[in-house]
Request: fold
Amino acid sequence: MRNDVIVRLAAANPVPAPVERRAPFRFRRSIPALAAALLVGIPAVAFAGRLANVLGISNGGTEVSTSEVLPGQTKLDEALQEMNVGSTMQYLGALNGVRFYAARNAEGKFCLAIDHYTQAYEKGVFCDLNADNFPSPDVQALTFPRMLQGVAADGVATVEFLDASGNVTDSTPVTDNLFASSTRVADGQAAYLVTLDAQGKVISKQPLP
Reply:
């Protein structure tokens, strides 16, 4: 199943510029379609029966107030509110200068926020609104565009970007369900997000929008 990760954020692809000047990411689906999906309002607890925990990964994190996730980033705070993330998120830890926060919104969709805390820019948020919501057999990792920075399902040891010809454009290890490469690939260069286990066997190959 094709995985079209839906991003809704004031600055979808973290770039070295003030938040206020970032251009919005061009979605495959329209903003109205996204808003409609968020209005369903299924409590996240409804998914607890099929998931090992609320997030569905071993790294359950530590609960923090959503207001503390990206303080001072007004547009990103508004994006989190529009995505119905709620009053708290789980702090998953820091890796290579990036802090990771996750939650399931009111519909039960997995939402992620990252903060390059050593820099004044490169912060972002998104929610995966696909039917095969992370984690699932077809969706073993979620990442921000152009950089391997995100979360991976249990059992994933490495994540990679492949170009349309199948060449590896970037690869990075997974630690406690998190990955954070410092490499930025060219726009449109990454065609697939691939996950591998500890033996190097491919677990999933997700086409990117």
